[in-house]
Hints:
Layout: H1 3-18, H2 26-32, E1 40-41, E2 47-51, H3 56-61, H4 68-79, E3 88-91, H5 105-122, E4 126-130, H6 132-141, H7 151-154, E5 159-163, E6 166-173, H8 177-181, H9 186-198
Parallel strand pairs: 2-3, 2-4, 4-6
Antiparallel strand pairs: 1-3, 5-6
Helix pairs in contact: 1-5, 4-9
Bound molecules: uracil.
Uracil is lined by residues 37, 51-55, 58, 64-65, 69, 91.
Amino acid sequence: MTEAEKEEKLKAVKDEVLGLAASPLYAERIKNGVFPVIGEGDHSARIMLIGEAPGKNEAATGRPFCGASGRILDELLGSAGIDRKSVYITNIVKDRPPMNRDPLPNEIAIYAPFLDRQIEIIQPEIIATLGRFSMDYIMRRLGLEQELDSISRIHGKVFSAELAYGRVRVVPLYHPAVAVYDRSKIDDLKKDFESLKSL
Ligand code: URA
């Protein structure tokens, strides 16, 4: 796929999410005058990071991981020597759930096809999921349901799957927000990001 084709396909994803009135989170977005978060980064990134859903800062700006969790993510990427601009960062759910509650199954179901399309367009070699919602979705989607376990057991492990465009490695990671609330978790997170770097 050429860069121009990628741009066009990613723009179609963006336009469809912008007009996604069928989403239960759409009315809230319009009422609050905020934005969906589509994704950001290199459109040919080798690494795609997939979070959960936008928080307050992300919905206000339309950019992923730009609040407290984003500062932790930047620290983790920095400690592993990975340039934020060289990866692609997105979420499964593109609109902010009210009060930052967990995304509901019907919300994941309505936004996940957009994530699937982003993966097919960007064709990352490595998908790092941030938190249990994206871990759960991606591992099932890529036929790794047999390997699914609690995030405390499988964080930092590397799984392999085949997609239409080729082989992809999946690395489940803790959500950076865990270190916002419990700073002692930062070392576990740093170790996992190191394993990402070593791939
Ligand atoms: N948490 C997420 O999962 N995604 C963001 O973009 C920000 C916070």
